[in-house]
């Protein structure tokens, strides 16, 4: 009995092929862009080190003026679905801050919860500030009208110029820029710095669309686990986009704030690998990798990375010790050849 | 970011179809029509192969795209144009092995989200006219590989599902014949157990 003679090959329609080819094309273009970004980042970094100084680097910019609804995944793990004809630009994307400019059209936002990051959507005259929620925005540039519908959580609406808080809009509520401004509109506030605790539900909601009353704790406040998961996702997305600095900051942040979370050991492994390969910091990598090696499931990968780190640092004694640990625990491990080839006494290059 | 579909360039109306060596040479030189033609000729086979290597995955499209992205970017490493098809399979094996490994790791850490039900995906791999014992064996193979290390898993699928010879499995995996035989022996013994249990159920 042979299985292969009964196999059924998939029949791909021409649309399937077009769609797959599109994916290949876009992925290749994204790779080329990442490589360019990386080269730019290295060049910018070298200028910075040389003391020339580099002005604020906007990590990623993308602008969509598309004919079809489009889903855009942001570097922090959040997503935006923009409707046809929408003029939307991701001006800033990173672990600490995301800024999207919506000039015209309509878009839905799904923002991953993270109190340590500031997520703003800039409208022509207003700023929408979010911690973690879902909402829809429409901008009619001709009528000078902006509208907001909040589906989950709460978002703040501020004046774009003075940063004055105009309204806090909760789930199920609608806000429109043509509504009369509240009498008790708040005095201009300085831009809120990114804080480590959620402050979006503060009770001082002067000028809000709906008066907030002291009540029970916010049930939609993100749990520790979801915050850790969001941090992990954000850092991973940053890593995949080639934004290694943000990725390292994200993983470090996760390990610092949520050391016992289930994502922590994997974050430690990724951090170690990034520090070794991308930052050429094998000593810094070793600390994170020792942490990752405590996890039985990651021991194989973490110990292998540790061997490579010590090899890269030229620390033969520690390299041999880590190599021996690896070979005794994982004699048939997936990295066994690489580990065996290490610790020869020469300084290895990042692999 | 663009949402529009990138059209697959149509083959030029030539007197004769270019042969594989010509296509590879032109694709290597960066000619997009040649790359598209290579894609068009091989995408179904690669898609089927990827589905058989990882039937319970939900992202076959993504894997197939990654195979062609990697292939197009490393065409300069292909020594013999005639080996293009096998070389593509090697890339697919490498990508799938990494995904399987990563998925297991995430699953052990409790971070993996479940995918399609196994039976549904496996039944789609064979033709509806296949005799019942073929489906029984196929299901046993996939129940077995679900418990195996990614190397053993791939070796067993190549041998039992793809029907490759042991030497061809070794070549495809880039391992020695003796290592491949050892892996296959270990995987086959587990498969025998699984088939035995299946008969007793």
Gist?
The complex is a heterodimer of chains A (351) and B (201). Chain A has 351 residues and is α+β, with helices and mostly antiparallel strands.
**Envelope shape of chain A:** globular
The portion of residues forming beta strands of chain A comes to 15-25%
Percent of sequence in beta strands of chain B: under 5%
Helix content, binned percent of chain A? 25-40%
C-alpha termini separation of chain A: 45 Å
Structural class of chain B: mainly alpha
Mean pLDDT level of chain A: 74
How far apart the termini of chain B lie comes to 53 Å
Order of helices and strands of chain B: HHHHHHHHH
Which characteristics define this entry?
heterodimer, A: 351 residues, twelve-stranded mixed sheet, 8 helices, globular, B: 201 residues, mainly alpha
Fold and architecture overview:
- The complex is a heterodimer of chains A (351) and B (201).
- Chain A has 351 residues and is α+β, with helices and mostly antiparallel strands.
- Chain A contains eight helices and twelve strands.
- Chain A has helices at 14-49, 224-240, 244-257, 264-277, 282-293, 299-313, 316-329, 336-340; strands spanning 62-64, 70-73, 79-82, 87-93, 97-110, 118-122, 126-130, 134-140, 145-152, 154-159, 165-170, 174-176.
- In chain A, strands 1, 2, 3, 4, 5, 6, 7, 8, 9, 10, 11 and 12 form a twelve-stranded mixed β-sheet that branches.
- In chain A, helix 3 packs antiparallel against helix 4 (264-277).
- The longest helix of chain A is centred in the first third of the chain and has 36 residues, at 14-49.
- Chain A is globular.
- The N and C termini of chain B lie far apart (53 Å).
- The mean pLDDT of chain B is 84.
- Chain B has helices spanning 20-28, 32-53, 60-73, 84-108, 118-123, 132-145, 150-161, 166-173, 177-200.
- At the A-B interface, helix 1 of A face helix 2, helix 3, helix 4, helix 6 and helix 7 of B.
């Amino acid at each position: 009995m042979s299985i292969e003679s009964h196999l059924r090959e998939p029949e791909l329609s021409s649309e399937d092929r077009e769609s797959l080819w599109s994916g290949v094309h876009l992925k290749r273009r994204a790779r080329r862009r990442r490589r360019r970004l990386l080269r730019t980042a290295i060049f910018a970094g070298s200028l910075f080190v040389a003391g020339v100084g580099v002005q604020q680097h906007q990590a990623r910019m993308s602008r969509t003026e598309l004919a079809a609804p489009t889903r855009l995944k942001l570097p922090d793990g959040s997503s935006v679905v923009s409707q046809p004809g929408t003029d939307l630009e991701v001006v800033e994307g990173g672990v600490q801050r995301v800024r999207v400019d919506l000039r015209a059209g309509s878009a839905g936002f799904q923002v991953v919860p993270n109190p340590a990051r500031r997520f703003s959507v800039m409208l022509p005259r207003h700023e929408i500030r979010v911690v973690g929620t879902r909402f829809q925005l429409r901008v009619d540039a001709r009528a000078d009208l902006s509208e907001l519908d909040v589906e989950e959580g709460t978002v703040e609406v501020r004046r774009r110029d003075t940063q004055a808080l105009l309204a806090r809009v909760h789930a199920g509520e609608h806000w429109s820029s043509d509504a009369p401004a509240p009498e008790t509109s708040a005095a201009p506030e300085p831009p809120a710095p990114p804080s480590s605790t959620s402050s979006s539900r503060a009770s001082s909601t002067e000028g809000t669309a709906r008066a907030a009353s002291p009540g029970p704790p916010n049930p939609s406040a993100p749990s520790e686990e979801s915050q850790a998961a969001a941090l992990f996702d954000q850092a991973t997305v940053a890593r995949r986009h080639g934004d290694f600095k943000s990725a390292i900051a994200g993983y470090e942040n996760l390990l610092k704030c949520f050391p016992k979370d289930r994502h922590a050991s994997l974050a430690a492994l990724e951090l170690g690998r990034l520090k070794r390969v991308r930052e050429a910091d094998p000593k810094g990598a070793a600390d994170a990798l020792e942490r990752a090696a405590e996890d039985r499931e990651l021991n194989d990968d973490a110990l292998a990375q540790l061997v490579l780190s010590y090899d890269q640092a030229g620390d033969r004694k520690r390299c041999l010790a880590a190599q021996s640990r690896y070979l005794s625990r994982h004699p048939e491990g997936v990295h066994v050849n690489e580990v065996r080839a290490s610790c020869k006494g020469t300084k290895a290059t990042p692999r | 970011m663009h949402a529009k579909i990138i059209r697959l360039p149509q083959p030029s109306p030539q007197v004769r179809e270019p042969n594989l060596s010509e296509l590879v040479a032109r694709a290597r030189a960066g000619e997009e029509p040649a790359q598209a033609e290579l894609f068009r000729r091989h995408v179904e086979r690669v898609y089927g192969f990827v589905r058989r290597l990882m039937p319970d995955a939900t992202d076959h499209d993504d894997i197939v795209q990654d195979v062609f992205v990697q292939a197009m970017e490393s065409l300069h490493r292909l020594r013999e144009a005639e080996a293009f098809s096998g070389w593509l399979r090697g890339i697919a094996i490498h990508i799938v092995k990494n995904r399987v490994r990563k998925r297991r790791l995430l699953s052990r850490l409790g971070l993996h989200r479940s995918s399609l039900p196994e039976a549904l995906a496996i039944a789609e791999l064979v033709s509806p006219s296949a005799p019942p014992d073929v489906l029984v064996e196929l299901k046993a193979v996939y129940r077995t590989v679900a418990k195996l290390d990614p190397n053993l898993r791939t070796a067993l699928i190549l041998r039992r599902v793809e029907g490759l010879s042991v030497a061809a499995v070794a070549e495809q995996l880039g391992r020695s014949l003796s290592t491949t035989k050892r892996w296959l022996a270990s995987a086959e013994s587990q498969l025998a157990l699984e088939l035995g249990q299946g008969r007793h159920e």
